[in-house]
Amino acid sequence: MLSRLRGGRVYDLSVEYFIGMPSWQAAGDPHYRIWMTHTPHGTIVDDPLGTGKTMNGHVSYTGAAVSMYTHTGTHIDGLAHFGLNGRIWNGFEAGEHLGDRGWRVAGMENMPPIVARGIMLDVASAKGLAMLPDGYRVSREDLVAAAQRQQVRLREGDVVLIRTGRMLHYEQAAAYMANPPGLGLEAARFLIEESGAMIVGADNLSLEAFPSELATDYVPVHTYLLAEQGAPIIELTWLEDLARDEVYEFAFIAAALKLRGADAAPFRPIAIPLR
Amino acid sequence: MLSRLRGGRVYDLSVEYFIGMPSWQAAGDPHYRIWMTHTPHGTIVDDPLGTGKTMNGHVSYTGAAVSMYTHTGTHIDGLAHFGLNGRIWNGFEAGEHLGDRGWRVAGMENMPPIVARGIMLDVASAKGLAMLPDGYRVSREDLVAAAQRQQVRLREGDVVLIRTGRMLHYEQAAAYMANPPGLGLEAARFLIEESGAMIVGADNLSLEAFPSELATDYVPVHTYLLAEQGAPIIELTWLEDLARDEVYEFAFIAAALKLRGADAAPFRPIAIPLR
Amino acid sequence: MLSRLRGGRVYDLSVEYFIGMPSWQAAGDPHYRIWMTHTPHGTIVDDPLGTGKTMNGHVSYTGAAVSMYTHTGTHIDGLAHFGLNGRIWNGFEAGEHLGDRGWRVAGMENMPPIVARGIMLDVASAKGLAMLPDGYRVSREDLVAAAQRQQVRLREGDVVLIRTGRMLHYEQAAAYMANPPGLGLEAARFLIEESGAMIVGADNLSLEAFPSELATDYVPVHTYLLAEQGAPIIELTWLEDLARDEVYEFAFIAAALKLRGADAAPFRPIAIPLR
Amino acid sequence: MLSRLRGGRVYDLSVEYFIGMPSWQAAGDPHYRIWMTHTPHGTIVDDPLGTGKTMNGHVSYTGAAVSMYTHTGTHIDGLAHFGLNGRIWNGFEAGEHLGDRGWRVAGMENMPPIVARGIMLDVASAKGLAMLPDGYRVSREDLVAAAQRQQVRLREGDVVLIRTGRMLHYEQAAAYMANPPGLGLEAARFLIEESGAMIVGADNLSLEAFPSELATDYVPVHTYLLAEQGAPIIELTWLEDLARDEVYEFAFIAAALKLRGADAAPFRPIAIPLR
Question: ipTM of the predicted structure?
């Protein structure tokens, strides 16, 4: 694939992080925060390094810190994020392997950089919409129709990104978070079992639509992909530029922060179109 | 350059994040923290989504959150990190553009993904050492000698990464942080002004060596690169695999988290060797 | 006053801190967070002190950490919280005294413990209501009527706590936070200038009602009390037990956490009825 | 006791919170952090409430946030902090009662305000020292000697605070934290079982001295007091003013923040001498 890289445009598939941004908040997880630990003026007042007022007036120091749920912004869910009956992918059991600082196995430090063929399926556009309706559940047929319209064929090992158009609401956090459209379970099965996708992602908050299709599992697409198929999930991708330029096939290059023990990590994927 | 990508190995240039990891702590900045917000068992006790005990026992939920100084782990310093006399690169003044949530201009959300030729200069090996001594200041001559030994020629637009060997201490935070070897000012000038480097980086804590060469500036390499040359700085890169395989020229691909207003951001760069 | 302390009941005037609790969130401040840093089981897996599995199974270690805006839960606003035209009480100017870690003057470490006569004015009950209506602005007349009904007379140095009844909504954060009733400016003047109150507080989110009575100041009661009168403000007090028992006069004893440089701090005041 | 309160001086038994302060850091717990969320100038740049530049220049807004391990600064350990063999005081088992947000039983929200007789035993002064030596383990005899010298007799229900003098190092965090003197197990037994103390505290980091007296328990004084006796522990108290004034008997008044589910909470105790 690397020999087919088209020069020129590199597409940025990531959203920005800012106070007030959308994130998964329904279960009480930390919202994104950023704060200043050093400012040019504050440093003059505080003198944290003991260099004195003249030095601090000359050398203008800015530093910032952040805190966030690991599922904030464009990110990838690792296999530890959801298991079934106390066990994650590979049969690892929480009681044995999960400490107060994360999993001793299957943490994000083990996820390699991803350099793979990427396919974007623009379901919204295939349905003639700017954005799929609230709560809409993308079906197997929707995916087939989008692939057909785009004349792309999925292959073993692809990273498949589904566009719902939800990113049009990204700067309005409440609108983005409330009842998003998402992937249905049958559609997920189609991507993995019929089409050979390695990783599935989308431009919405949590990949799938709510409420669940199953009475016994409130996140069946997550448990199917992560716990049953060993397939990571990418969420909150920015697909608007690809959609505008009708770029459906590309090198997908991304590497998640190696947060030891974590079940997910932010990253900033890029897409380079293929010849 | 993309047409010269060699298939096969992708080199991961990033370190892991964990409690106790080294970071810039001299000025009181936050150490890296990770904590669990959801665990399979805790979810049964807390029931944060109100789904009930049976559901929580079946769907095993793990979630983690992190906090960190933006200069933690492998990261890139943006142009707002250090200015001179209250102004950063482009003449932006803190009083006008710096709020409590970062810079309204020149924040990390403006830094594009980096796809460029990367060159690793293995100064430690060129000097016949596993690791440069504590406090050693890499000179222009050291860089010239390393490039000559490696038979690489620097070019306009390169990302140049200096290997001091300091990563051998990475898992011993105190040893890694104490008095690291680093880049001298003349060497930095050589990279930018003579060699055309776009970005300079290293495998140590803060690129440069301390104490400063100048009485009037405690971080002269930082202010030279960021404030005078508009050149970002990469720190804490993992260069050991490249060194072992003697890979000195590669496609450097990296994209920093788009932390709005921030002066730096973590990322996980990769290197793909060139033919 | 201390000689008049009645034995027996000590009233707790503080609310609980928990994930999802109400707090001032309109300007993007951190919500309350708590997380576990050590659990009996996690310690067995992590072994953070290197004491081994047997020891960790025997000695069952729990540790928790928290983060919060300093105005979270029952707390007191110090004089640095709001100033006018860049200056806080005593004329201290932010440019000179405010660093990245707080004020070098007038921080909460300077606020002494409070042992004073406390008076609770139950305005809601005086108006025959369980809770004042949303957005209701407590007037001078309301305070006079409540004091008269309770047969209390305010004195120089009192801590005066106004009950709006809003605490009935405390466990429903959205209801508690939305458009609370609060103190009007004229009523605040009455308490300070006519009645000699040293500190004014209430059971609502921000003492005053919104939107502001003044076009030129969005928090006129805060700037009046803090910046013009040098009077701290207590918010989010639990007055329900005092109201139920019709305890209107008491020893108010409280000491805010000595957060160096902070503009506010949480505390847990108590009331001991007087003979 | 309340009828014996002496007017006049109120003693503040709390230390200040600041970046760089000592805290329990050996097991990777969060250091104290404070940061600004609003500053008078930053608010003008950010305009977080949309009130505009003129308004933000007139109404000067300061806000700060904090994060900390709950055992930071002057604080009290609740009964959930240490158990034995998976169970805390009252036989509560972590597997049943401990979620990701703390204990569902025995959390700090259940600890009532403390209004009790306080006794300070100045062991350092009794031994003719400004400060007990590093690692010194206070014995039963030391306590008896100090009580005798001070002519105080312990009674059922007392809060007993042991002065080691360690606070002389408080502003030098490394010195304060390294190998502190502390209470021995036999001395703890004397206080609880022979003397009837309700709560035991000290001016050092962790009450007891290290390494442990027992091979099977690395914190035997903690497990004895918390898990076996149901007695909370107070740490990091400021006793220097009491010592200077030779005030050994007082009303101890304190109320810990009601952190739901937490195993400890900061507070700011005061002492009012008795007649």
Answer: 0.97
